[in-house]
Hints:
Blueprint: H1 2-6, E1 8-11, E2 30-35, H2 37-40, E3 52-56, E4 64-66, E5 89-95, E6 103-104, E7 118-122, E8 140-141, H3 143-151, E9 156-159, H4 173-180, E10 185-187, E11 200-203, E12 214-216, E13 220-223
Parallel strand pairs: 5-7, 6-8, 7-9, 9-10
Antiparallel strand pairs: 1-13, 2-3, 4-10, 4-12, 5-11, 11-13
Amino acid sequence: MAAESNRRIVDLSHEIVDGMTTHPGIPAPSISTFLTHEASTARYAPGTTFEIGRIDLVANTGTYIDTPAHRFPDGQDLAGLELERVVDVDGVLVDCRGATERAIGPDAFAGVDVRGRAVLVATGWDEHWGTPAYLSDNPFLTGAAAEWLVSSGAALIGIDSLNVDSLTDPTRPAHTAILRAGIPLVEHLTGLGELPPAGWRFFAVPPRIVGMATFPVRAFAIVG
């Protein structure tokens, strides 16, 4: 009972809202109602109603996961993503919120045991969510940092920034290194400041969609 009382769940996902902007150049989601409670009265018994919603969105909306197919045409898609990669994964937080440079290099991970763990990088950029400031000049991982995480055995990588790469580098070295290694990548996280450095488990599960490379997730951590 004591262990249960010390456990808390930390939501690490942004809300998805009609008309919101996640990334420059990506269309906003459109959220509507396909069947209203009022319209459903003709289909069911008196006093019984249902609502069915409808949403039109680009897969890279809100807090979302990238699979290898996002970067590589023959890469694994959402349907091929093993649940073990995104469910109940031991987590470690790397706090870069006090960094003076946008580029996060391998030194940020010095002394951190990342093998087999979900490595979440806190930059504090999520404080700009929903404003024009969020959409440019974001903190990012250098190619060398991404390669270090891959070679050190990270199981999953996440960041609370606009992109794991700099938007000024069209080669996208961090995406390339991480997804080439088959490591799931979660972008646009939020609330990482509520996590301790370790002692928590990470979850970020997308739908099992064949042929889809990215999709929103409800990312969260269980602490304690």
